[in-house]
Amino acid sequence: MADRPEQSQGDAQWRTAGDRIQTLLDATSTGGVAARERAEQLVREVVGLYGAALSRIVDLVADAAVIERLAGDDLVASLLLVHGLHPHDVHRRISDALDRVRPYLGSHGGDVHLLEIVGDTVRLQFSGSCKSCPSSAVTLELAVEDAIRAAAPEVSSIEVIAADADAVIPAESLLTKVHSNGSGPQWHPVPGFAELAPGEIGGFVVAGVPVLACRVGDRLYAYRDHCPGCEGSLAGAQLQDALLRCPRCHARFDVVHAGAGLDDTTAHLDPIPLLVRDGVLSLAAPAESTGVSA
């Protein structure tokens, strides 16, 4: 689920700049150790130059309101973080990040609370999640982890405190289903989703995964194109208010509430995280073999 974003092709380009730089650095290794060291030194010099310029800009602005606006821009905020110029401390950044994903968690009947930050470890507590829908729980955990990593790159570990016990559950164990085959789902820009009109359904293929995107009012929701009732595609499905009806078996699902089945409460659609990341609407497309389906 995501609000209608202000899409920017530039944001999509720069969001992956770090990966492209790393790829170029890796390619220099073929030229030997000296070539690799020169390339790394070049990157350090460029980063240092832009860091000094950003620091000078922050000093010259000297206006708290303007600095706040800069920190509110995902792309600019990421650069401020790199150079230690972000105006907010780690607690404020994580709290704000959780607030941004809280509407998404609410659509799955869940919530998250920041308990404490100890060193570089963040401790959270989930509540009210859709316990009957394992895939929904995975999407919540993935969304929260991603939001925290983006807002606070200095965080090295995330722990979840069970609501009914004192046990500490490392986030990595909660995300076993996601990360079981390597790095897990990859985020992919999906600007085409934003073009859907209210009440409209669109079929897409993202990283080889068939995806069904729906807009209910101002909100976007994404699910795997698979009906748990008849095991078929949902192509041609109808959406009325928040209810999606399979065109073959006529099973009904609540799009707004994690795809819960209305006719068979044990059946549910498989939600896929759909969030605005660095100003770009993106989807965490699962690999076919990750077993994200419940």
Automatic annotation (TrEMBL):
PROSITE patterns from the UniProt entry: RIESKE
Annotated GO MF terms: 2 iron, 2 sulfur cluster binding; iron ion binding; monooxygenase activity; oxidoreductase activity, acting on paired donors, with incorporation or reduction of molecular oxygen
Keywords: 2Fe-2S, Iron, Iron-sulfur, Metal-binding
Database matches in SUPFAM superfamilies: Fe-S cluster assembly (FSCA) domain-like (SSF117916), ISP domain (SSF50022)
Alphabetized Pfam families for the sequence: NifU, Rieske
All copies of domain Rieske, residue ranges: 188-283
Gene Ontology biological process terms in this record: iron-sulfur cluster assembly
Function: May be involved in the formation or repair of [Fe-S] clusters present in iron-sulfur proteins.
Name of the protein in its database record: Rieske domain-containing protein
Native source organism of the sequence: Mycobacterium celatum
